[in-house]
Amino acid sequence: MPTVKKMLARMIAAMGVEDLRIPTSLVKFYPEGEEVPAHVLENHPDSLTFTSCQAVRQASCGDAVCLTRSNIGCVAAAISLGLVDQDETKPLEGPRVYTELMREQRRDPGARFQAPSPSDFTDGIVYACRDAGREDFCLFGEDDCGRYKDVATAKTAIADMTAIQPAVMQAVFFYTPEYDATDLIPDVVVFSVRPVELTRIIQAYQFNTGKRITASMGGIRTVNSDLVARPYLTGEMNISTYCLGARLIAKFEADRLGIGMPYAVFEEVVRGMEDSKHGFPFHLYPGAGT
User: Fold this and answer.
1) Could you give the CA distance from residue 131 to residue 278 in angstroms, rounded to a whole number?
2) DSSP characters over 28-42
3) What's the pLDDT tens digit per position in 42-76?
4) Hey, which of 2-11, 22-31, 105-114 has the most confident mean pLDDT?
5) Backbone angles phi, psi at 92, to 5 degrees
6) Could you give the CA distance from residue 60 to residue 271 in angstroms, rounded to a whole number?
7) For residues 139 and 106, is the Cβ–Cβ distance under 8 A?
8) Are the C-beta atoms of 282 and 194 separated by less than 8 Å?
9) pLDDT band at 112, cuts 50/70/90?
10) Residue 72 gets which letter from DSSP?
11) Contact status, residue 147 vs residue 121, Cβ threshold 8 Å
12) Is residue 63 a contact partner of residue 194, using CB atoms and an 8 Å limit?
C-alpha cells in the first residue's frame, strides 16, 4: 500500500503547478481498549496543552501531537473528539489554553477563577456567557457579547455540532505526511486550502463519483467538529471556514479554509485528480501558481 506521503505527492503532481504546497494534517483515533503505539505516545506533551486547532496546524507544519484528556487545551474539542463526556460537571484538571484566555481577560486576573466544565459548554453557558450572567467565561473583556446572543440560541447551535459521544476515545494523534510510521493509516485527512485549490479537489472527487459535496459548517468548533469528527462519523468529505480559535489561537491565514475527509475519500480524490488532470487545467486557474 502506498504511503500517504506518496499519495499526496501524486495528487499535487497531477495538479500541474510546480512547488505547490497544500498544508496537510493526518488524524488517527485510538478508542479505549486499543493499544496506543509507543511512537505515538512519544509525541504526547505532558507539560503543555494544545487545542485541536493548534494540533492540526502543528501537523501541517511538520510536527506531530498526541492529544489525550490530560493535555487537550480546548474543552469543546475534547467533547467533539470523544475524549471527555459532554455532560461532565467538573472542570478538567489543570490550566487549558482556551479557558486560560478567560482568566487573562478579567479585571483581576489573580482573583479566584473556576474554569468551565464540559457541561457548561454543552448547556450553552460558555458560548452565551453574557446572557447566562457568567462574565467570568468571557474571552474579550467586559464588552464581550459571547458567541451567541442567548443560551437558547447557543443550545440550538451546539445541537448541530458533530461530536463523538459517548466519549470513547483515549487518544487522538495529529501528524504530518512526512511522519516515519509509513504503516499508519489515518482516519481523517485535513487540508488547509485556498478557494482555488478547493475547487480543483472537488472537481477531482466528482470526476469518478459524480457526487456533490454538501458542506456543514458553523462559526465555532470548526476544526474538531466540522473537519475531524464529522468526516470520521459520516464517512463523507466536509468543508468549513476556520473558527475563532483557529484564527486567533492557531493563526490560520486569512486566505485559507479547511477540508476534512476520511482516508477512503482521500484515496478517491487522488485517483480523480490523476484521471481528470487533462480535463481541468489547474495551472491556468487565476492565482493557482502563486
Assistant:
1) 55
2) EEEETTSPPPHHHHT
3) 999 998 999 999 999 999 999 999 999 999 999 99
4) 22-31
5) -65, 145
6) 22
7) no
8) no
9) confident
10) B
11) no
12) no
Instruction: State the residue for C-alpha cell 493535555.
Output: 71
Q: Is residue 127 within 8 Å of 159, Cβ to Cβ?
A: no
pLDDT score of 260 more than 90: yes
Question: Closest Cα partner for 153 from 138, 136, 134, 132?
Answer: 132
**Hey, what's the cell of 96?**
487549558
- DSSP secondary structure code for residue 50 in this structure: B
Residue-level pLDDT at 142: 83
Q: Which residue(s) pair with 257 in the sheet?
A: 193
Three-class DSSP category at 196 = helix
Q: DSSP letters along 104-165, please? A: HHSSSTTS---PPPHHHHHTTTTTTTTTTT-GGG-SS-TT---SSSSHHHHHHHHHTS----
Q: Are 285 and 196 in contact (CB under 8 A)?
A: yes
- Alpha-carbon distances of 29 from 41, 83, 233, 276, 282, rounded to whole Å: 13, 10, 12, 32, 34
Residues whose CB falls within 8 Å of the CB of residue 64, separated by 6 or more in sequence, listed in order: 43, 58, 173, 174, 175, 176, 179
Q: Do residues 162 and 81 make contact, with C-beta atoms less than 8 angstroms apart? A: no
- Where along the chain do its domains lie? 4-69+169-284, 87-159
pLDDT digits (tens, 9 = 90+) for 71-98: 999 999 999 999 999 999 999 999 999 9
Q: pLDDT digit string (tens) for 170-209?
A: 999 999 998 866 678 999 999 999 999 999 999 999 999 9
